[in-house]
Records
---
Amino acid sequence: MIKKVIYPGTFDPLTNGHLDIIQRSAAMFDHVVVGIAASPSKNTMFTLDERVALAGQATQHLSNVSVQGFSGLLIDFVKQEKVDILIRGLRTTIDFEYEFGLTNMYRRFAPKLESIFLTPTEEYMFLSSSIVREVAIHGGEISEFVPPAVAKAIAQKVKS
């Protein structure tokens, strides 16, 4: 049986912490879909197409990873992709409480859907997209926190 999973998120921007979770998931499963949410209610730095392209560049070395943008409910994307496992990253107990609530909601719509929670490696435990954006906006160095293509794209966004 081929096991396909989805790692969903906004990924604005994709960080090395996200990439850590993607790489580890790719080692555990046959296929990982990085599902990038449109998230129209969020004021994102990058458009959906830009986020998909940047994630594609960052994961191109992983043959069993694909990147897809989606709009609407995650549960609809999960059904469209015929997936019964979500990968979720947890950094803090606050993340756990939030994800625990979402997991129970997802089960109402898709009773067989399971969530697997992964914690990032220690060096990325503090890292979030919002921290990276904030540091970049204020002129801080972010290259150790994001893939090279993402660092370049953020630098260009901050300039304009």
Note: The first strand starts at residue 4 and ends at 9.
---
Amino acid sequence: MRETYGQPLARDAMAYVLAGGRGSRLKELTDNRAKPAVYFGGMSRIIDFALSNAINSGIRRIGVATQYKAHSLIRHMNRAWNFMRPERNESFDILPASQRVSETQWYEGTADAVYQNIDIIESYSPKYMVILAGDHIYKMDYELMLRQHVNSGADVTIGCLVVPQVEATGFGVMAVDDKDVITDFVEKPINPPEIPGKPGFSLASMGIYVFDTKFLFDLLREDAANPLSTHDFGNDLIPKIVKGGKAVAHRFTESCVRAADEIGEYWRDVGTLDAYFETNLDLTDTVPMLNMYDRDWRIWTDQVVAAPAKFVHDEEGRRGHAVRSLISQDCIVSGATAYRSLLFTGVKMGSFSSVTEGVILPYCNIGRGARLNRVIVDSGVRIPEGLVVGEDPELDAKRFRRTDNGVCLITKRMIQQLDL
């Protein structure tokens, strides 16, 4: 085992964010945007968490691979992440699928999305590669994972969550020995392997990998030449290393970043409407499990120049107020009520309207007298006056996208098709 001393390993690392997924389980919310570009938490986008973790960990070389419906994602990154300076040995590369290897070949898998940009990565000469998914909500110090990777002499180090065995069936799951060396890797197993000494729990992959760059490039070139490969980290590269090399699990508990009032580690995949809804509403708790107010580990994003939020009217039945809610800049709550809700930038609420458990995306306008309960409202939607959602399940299901948990997604097209 090699102990690391001296300057942080993050200075010699490049973070490579895989942000090309379709996000189809978010339904109409990803009709016009990639999943990593979906709004989150009042001001941020989902991808801001992986990027902020990299910056806060000390990594100053970042690449982001995009593919499907990437315009809003690229626009956001150009606006929010253009502060990296080459003269400080920093870089931020947006790497759309652009048929650089073949005139007919887009990114064919997560591994291929790295392989096609090997020449760009090599120009920066990173010693380590930190491969990240761009669509999860969490705070993590990648420097600690890099240290474990070097000290253990691993070919690959895989970020893992400790989850109840019954919940692990939807993940890639690691079987490990008593030193967390991975002995088997199984995708979505019916009977997930348990953690030694911790019955009833399993280690699930977070989709975070650390490699020595040279080892990774050799592996990617070999994989690209294999016509039978799906060119995917989880399906092809990781199982191969587990069988013929040394793969080590890194437990999220070892590098999770917690503010003073955060009790446990927090990681969420917001890949479904229900998960997206609940994860946003988690932020409205008095002491939220994820602290967005932590000044020591900021979540960086595009800073919109806008007026402060405003609450107006103070009459019985027409009082602008919010309880257990996050209200962003440029919002006007005019004689209306928001309860356990998130109002993103530029939301306007008309008199006598109410939102209860709502995730209202930017620049929506909620008409007078409207009542919304358990909703996600896509950006730019104008809710008609007097519209009621969340009180008649059958009617809601006919007009909007309603989940099994009773959450309604409302989009512009759905509003346009209403017969009012």
Note: The CA atoms of residues 41 and 407 lie 17 Å apart.
